[in-house]
What we know:
The structure is a homodimer. By secondary structure, the first copy, chain A, is α/β, with parallel strands linked by helices. Chain A has helices at about 1-15, 15-25, 45-60, 75-90, 110-120, 135-145, 160-165, 185-195, 220-235, 240-265, 270-280, 285-295, and strands at about 35-40, 65-70, 95-100, 125-130, 150-155, 175, 210. Chain A is about 55% helix and about 15% strand. In chain A, strand 2 (about 65-70), helix 4 and strand 3 (about 95-100) form a beta-alpha-beta unit. Chain A starts with a helix and ends in an 8-residue tail after the last helix. At the A-B interface, helix 2, helix 7, helix 10, helix 11 and helix 12 of A face helix 2, helix 7, helix 10, helix 11 and helix 12 of B.
Amino acid sequence: MRTAGRLMSLMEDDAARAAEVARAVQPHAGQAHVIGVTGPAGAGKSTLLNALAGRLHQQHRRLGIVAVDPSSPFNGGALLGDRIRLQERFGADGPFIRSMSSRGHNQGLARAAFGVVELMDAMGYPMVALETVGAGQNAIDALRIADTVLLVLAPGLGDAVQAMKAGLLELADVVVMNKADRAEAEEAARDLRASLAGHPTPEGWAVPVLTASAAREQGIDQLLTTLDAHRTHLAASGAGDLRRRRAAVAAIEAVLADRLADTVRRLRPAVEDLAPRVAERTLDPFAAAEALLRQAGIRDNWA
Amino acid sequence: MRTAGRLMSLMEDDAARAAEVARAVQPHAGQAHVIGVTGPAGAGKSTLLNALAGRLHQQHRRLGIVAVDPSSPFNGGALLGDRIRLQERFGADGPFIRSMSSRGHNQGLARAAFGVVELMDAMGYPMVALETVGAGQNAIDALRIADTVLLVLAPGLGDAVQAMKAGLLELADVVVMNKADRAEAEEAARDLRASLAGHPTPEGWAVPVLTASAAREQGIDQLLTTLDAHRTHLAASGAGDLRRRRAAVAAIEAVLADRLADTVRRLRPAVEDLAPRVAERTLDPFAAAEALLRQAGIRDNWA
């Protein structure tokens, strides 16, 4: 476990060593069911994953959780406390949890998250959940490495309709209306079912809208059965191969983005040199950037 | 106004045309007081800016507002409704409001936001507020173009302490504890004052912690006076020049990041070609990315 944690830190902090780890790990990975978990803040994603981890534990299956919070360090504290309680509950047999926030390495975050999912896969976790907070482009990008996308909503957040607009609903393979103890939950789920009816995925999967109360551990069995059923569908329909190819594109692009962001960091001293002229408005930022890219030998690849 | 809107759309959508606009606009900008507004979701940033716009309107000063939501399209609807009400209230003399979300162009967002702030500056708005939601790296980066950083908090969010941890407090020049009608507001403000006491900024500015109730339009006069005082301090201490240089670095880096992200997009067909081998685990994503960078002639600039 401590070795795994150290390897994960390498994955996060050191791009060059991450490449070595990725190479070594790759032949052992590819067996896990990777679940991308998304939804608005406050929907109860973490609590739901905790309940899911408990159910899996009873079945002697272990859950890996990679929690990525690309937008807000404000949630970090609460999340962490939650996770410590979870690990106390199950001990060494419990879920493996890795939290990442974006402070200071926004670009490398996707690359690091993908690496950590791969590592948990290679460690033999049969299910790995990649939990992202928020619904920005970062979250959507992260979902591209999942076999199954789970959208978690809750009644009264006014978010179901917003989620649709944000395009998350069209990415979802399974939708859970959490906090089903609330009166409006069943109606919210019904509305969603009505709007999804007759719109199966291109692969012929009718997106189910479940209800659950993660806090009361209700609806978790059905959720697990449904996630397993989606995996079976992916294998039977051939859609799984397409998903894995999409995941490969996402992983390559994450590494590319990380490498290019590194260029920006390396150019920092040169940027500082040009900054006074931009501040005095004798040079505009676009012209400054052009000059720097040319200087770094990158210019000719643009157009 | 319609011309301005069209120029802003260019700034957002078309990097090449944005460079032309930036060049044309630059000589006319540099006069506005740029306020970076940050704080957790739910603190009432938008309502506070609306109240500030009203106060400025009475003084025949107009406020430009650039609202950037890098993390969550979930807030988009509410924000928009708010803004329409604001424009109805003041009519053509009211604040100029431009909302941006990150959907689809995560990278270009910072570059576009800086461009729109510059444009409002050149249009003669004496004060331009750049409002960012969340506290991730995107938000922190955006604050770098501000002359004055305004941190908006509210009691009962449990966020004051978190904000400190997140490093936002150390970026703040002015802190407002909003929702001061709540009983805990005064105490929360006192706690913050105590923790800030004796820690002036490196430039010798003691960060004030104000209270306000944006919804009741209370405390807005004092906020405006304080923002003006910070600007005076920047000019008198010479700190303003340093800030402008920092803003220039941020603007150049935003353009660089945008250009490099464009490289990733251009490499997409080549990424798709390599994806099957990564999916089959005969090639790892790092090796794939290396090969692509070499192929694009960029490789030699790394190492």
